[in-house]
Here is the input.
Amino acid sequence: MRRLKTWESRALPALIVFLVVCLAYVQAPQTQEFHYDDGHSLVRNPHIRNLENLPDFFKTRSMFGENPEDGMYRPLVLVAHSLNFAVTGLRPGAFVALNIVIHATSAAVIAWALTLLLPMRIGLVAGLLFGLHPVQSEAVHYISARSESLAGLFVALSVGAFALWIAGDRRRQGLRILSLGSFILGLLAKATAIVTPALIFLVAWRAWPDRSGRGALRAAFPWMVISLVYFIFHQLVKTSPLTPLRPVVVQLATQLKAVVHYLISFVMPIRLSVLPQFQESRILEPAVLLSLIALLSLGTVTWRHRQTIPGAAAGLAWFLICLSPTLVMPLNVLINDHRPYLAVAGLIWAAGTFAHHITRSVTIPLLLIAFVLTWQRSDTWETERSLWSDAVVKGPQMAIAHYNLGFAQHIAGQSDSATAHYRMALHIEPDYVRPLNNLGAIMREEGRLVDARKILHRAAELEPDNAEVLNNLGLVATAQGDAQDAVSILLRACDLSPSTGEIWLNLGLAQRDAGDPSAAMRSLQRALQLDPGLRNRVAVTP
Here is the structure.
C-alpha cells in the first residue's frame, strides 16, 4: 500500500504538468505553414509517405530528406513523421499537435524524475517550468526540431528510471532495462543523446556523495558500452555528414558565447527568435573572453559550494553536459532556441535547489508569465511571414532572416517587399547566392531580362554547380530568344539535378524553340515521369 501511494503521488504531478502544457499550446495547431527545414525533411521528402519504408529508416541516413547526400541518421524521427502523415496527411497543424504531445510528455517525465531528487512541490513546479518556459516553444512549433524533443523525452525517461532504480525500488531490473532501452531510443532520435552516460554518472554521483565516484562509474558502465557501440556504428556506416564547416577553434569560441546566450535566454526570454542575431567569433574577441570568464566563475562558485548546494552544482553540470556536443560538432546554424531543450532541465534542477526559499506568491506569477509568453509565441509561428518578420525585427543584421522573409513574401506575390529584403540580405552579405538567384527570378517575371541575366550570371560565377541558378538563367535565355544557349545551360542544370521535373520541362521547351522536336519530346516526357503535376503546363503528343 505504501508503494502504491508513492507511485500515485509521483504520477499526479506528471499528469498535472502534461495537461497544463497541452493547454498552453492549445492554439499552436492552428499554424498554417511548415517552416525552415520542414521543406526538405517533410514537404518534399517522399520517403515518409509510405509506411513500407519504416524498416529502411533504420538502415540508412539517405531517407531523412529530399537530398540523400544531406541525410542524417534519425530513424525514430522518420517513423514519427511517417505515422503522422499516414493518420493526418501533410497538415502542418497535425504535425505540431504531435510535437505538443511529445513535449508535454517530456515535461511530465521531467516532473516525475525531479520528484525523485527534489521535494514533491518543487518537482511539480520544475516540471511546469520546463514545459511552459517560452524558450522551449521552438521545439514544439518547428516540426523539424521534433528530433530534439523526442531525444529529450527518451533521455529524460532513461535518467528518471535510473534514478528510481538506484533509489532502491524493488523492481530494479525492470527499471534498469527501461533506462537502457530508453537510451537506445534516444540515440535513434538524435545522436546528441550520446551524453546520457554522463548524465547517468552525474545522477549516481549525486545519489552517493560520500563515494569517490567509482561506484557511480560502475553504475553507468552499461550506458557507456552502448554509447561506444553506437559511436563505432556511427563511424563505420557514415550515418551523418560531419564536414568541417569552420575551424575547431572558431567553433569552440562561438559556442562558448552561445552557452552564455542560452543562460541569458533562460533567465530573460523576452527577445526569442527563430534566428537570433549571432555571428562567428574568434577566441580572443572580448565577447568570447567575457563568456569564458562568466562560465568559469559560475562553475567555480558552484563547485566550491557543491556540498552545501549540491543540486545547483549538479544542475549546472547537467546543463553543460547536454550542450557539450555543440562545442565541437560542425553546425550549419550557429545557434537555435531548440538546441538546449534538455539542457534547460539542468538549469531548472539548479534553480530548484533554492526553491524552498520561494513562496507561492512568486512561483504562481512566474508560471503564469511563462504560460502567457509561450502562448504569444504561437502567433509568431503561425505563418512564414509572421515568423521571419519577427526574426528581422530582432536580428536586423541577419542576412538569412531578410532572405527568408523575402522568400515568404515572394511566394505570397509581394514582389516589391520581397525585392527590398533580398537587397537588404545582399547589403549585409554581398555574395549570398540565394537572394541573387531570387532577385533574378523576379526581374525575369517583370520582363527586365538584361538585368536578370546580369545578376544570375553573378550567382552562377559564385556557385557554378547550383542547378536552381542555372535553371533561372536558362529561362532568361529562352525569354531573350537565345534558345541554343538556353539548351546548353539547362542541360547542365539537368545533369546537376536529374530528378527535378521542372528543369526537364524548361529544357524541353528550350529544345522545342531551338528546332529539336525529338529531344524536346524526350525531355518533356521525362519531366512528366518525375512530376505528373506538370501535365497542366505542357501537352505531350505520344
In short: The chain has two domains: 2-380, 384-537. The chain has 25 helices and no strands. The longest helix spans residues 2-24. Confidence is low (pLDDT under 50) at residues 1-5.
